[in-house]
Amino acid sequence: MGSALPLAILLSTALADFAPQQAGSEPLEPALEARVQRLGKQLRCAVCQGLSISDSPASMARAQLDKVRAMVSEGKSDEEIRDYFVARYGEWVLLQPEAHGVNWLVWLGPVALLLIGFAVIARQLQKKPAAAPQASTEQQAKRPVQAPGDEDEYLARVRAELDR
Amino acid sequence: MSWRWSVLLAAAACTALVVILAKGFGKDPHQVPFMLAGKPAPAFSLQKLDGSGKVTLSELKGHPVVINFWATWCGPCKVEHPVLDWGYRQYGRQAEFLGVVFEDTVENSRAFLKQSPTPFPQLVDPQSQTAVDYGVAGVPETYFIDAQGTIRGKHVGPLSLDALTARIKDLVQPVAQAR
User: Fold this and answer.
1) Is B32 within 8 Å of A19 when comparing Cβ atoms?
2) How far is CA B15 from the centre of its chain?
3) Out of 1.10.8.640, 3.40.50.720, 3.40.1740.10, 1.10.357.20, which CATH number does the structure's domain A21-93 have?
4) Average pLDDT, chain B
5) Residue range A121-137, pLDDT digits in tens
6) Among all residues of chain B, which has the CA nearest to that of A50?
7) Is the pLDDT of residue A1 over 50?
8) Is A49 an 8 Å CB contact of chain B?
9) What is the ipTM of this complex?
C-alpha cells in the first residue's frame, strides 16, 4: 500500500494532460522590468487563488505578465495598465483594492475597530471604583442603630440601592 | 458613552460584519468577473493553424461571430468539441465560428485536429495576448459577438447543444429585441 501511492502519482502525472509551458517574452531593461514585476505584484492571476501574476507559475499568469511587459514597452502608464486589466477582469484583478466607495470600509474598518478597542480599554482603566453613596439623614434614621464597624461597605451600597 | 450608545454601536458593527460576510459568502471565489459584455470586441488578426492565412476580426464585421478558446490539454474542451462541430453545421450560415488555441503548442493542436477535425478556422494566439485582451480566465470559454462587433456575452465551461442554440438565437436577433 505504501509503495502504491507514489506509483499512482507518478503514473497519473505521466499520463495526465497538462498545459505545455510557453516561453514568456524577453525581460525588458532592468528599470522597466522592475516596473513590470512591481505592476505584476498588484495584479491577481486569473486562474490562481490569491497569487499575483508575478508570483504564479501558471501559464495564464505568464500570458498576463507578458501583456504587462508589452504595455510597459509601449510606454503605457501604470494607471493605464491597471485600467486595462480592470476593464477585463473587474476590480477583482487588483490585489490591493482601490480606496473609493465601499472599499473604504476595507481600509478604514480595521483602523476604526482598533481605535474603538483602545477607547474602551482606556475608559475602563480610567474608571475609579464607585464610592458608596451616602444615605440621607432620614434613611439613616430608619435603620437600626448599629455599632460602628458592624456594617461593611458592600452592605452599605446594597442598602443605598434599596433606598433609591 | 451611555450603554444605549454602546449597544447601538455594537449592533451597527455586527450588522456591517454580517452584510460584508453575506456578500462575500454569496460569491463564488473561483468566478472571475466578466466586464466586456456590451463592449466592442477587441480587434485581432491571427494566423490560421493550418497556415492558410490570417483571420482579422474587422473583416468579419456585419456577421455574428462565435470565438471559442480551447486547448488540447483541457478535458472539457474535448467534451465540447463535437458540440461546436454540430453548432457550425447547424448555424454556420448565421454566424462565423472561430477557434483560438490557448496556451498550447501548434504541434499538439494540429495532431488533435487531425484526429478530430473542425469545419471552421482554428487560430494561433502567440503568447495568448488575444486571450488576455478578451479577459479569458481559463478554457474552454466561448465569446459571442454580434454583427456590430459588440460582445453580447461569454460562456464559461463546455457548451451544451441547448446553451449554444440559445446563444446563437440571441446573437442573430437585433439588439433592440435582445434587450
Assistant:
1) no
2) 37
3) 1.10.8.640
4) 91
5) 988 888 776 665 565 56
6) B29
7) no
8) yes
9) 0.85
Which residue did the predictor score with more confidence, A125 or A2?
A: A125
Count the neighbouring beta carbons within 10 Å of the beta carbon of residue B124.
Answer: 18
Residues of chain B positioned with their CB less than 8 A from the CB of A88:
35-36, 132-135
- At A59-106, the pLDDT tens digits run 899 999 999 999 999 999 999 999 999 999 999 999 987 777 777 777
Query: B136 and A24: CB-CB below 8 Å?
Result: no
Q: Which of B20, B127, B135 is nearest residue A66 as measured by Cβ atoms?
A: B127
Facing residue for A88 by CB, picked from B36, B71, B72 = B36
- Please list, residue by residue across A71-86, b when 16 or more beta carbons sit within 10 angstroms of its beta carbon and e when fewer do: bbeeebeeeebbebbb
pLDDT of A11 strictly over 60: no
Mean pLDDT along residues B38-58: 96
* Contacts with B33 from chain A: Cβ below 8 Å: 89-90, 92
Query: Which residues of chain A make contact with B19, given a CB cutoff of 8 A?
Result: none
Q: Where are the domains of chain A?
A: 21-93, 130-164
Check pLDDT > 90 for residue B147. Answer: yes
**Best interface-test mutation with B: which of A12, A17, A73 has the largest number of B CBs within 10 A?**
A17
What is the strand order of the sheet B151-156 is part of?
B54-56, B45-48, B122-124, B96-101, B65-70, B141-145, B151-156
Flag if B108 and A89 touch (Cβ within 8 Å).
no
Chain B: give the shortest CA distance to residue A35, in Å. Answer: 19
pTM value?
0.75
Pick the CATH number of B36-178 from 3.40.30.10, 3.10.590.10, 2.40.50.140, 2.130.10.10: 3.40.30.10
Query: Of how many residues is chain B composed?
Result: 179
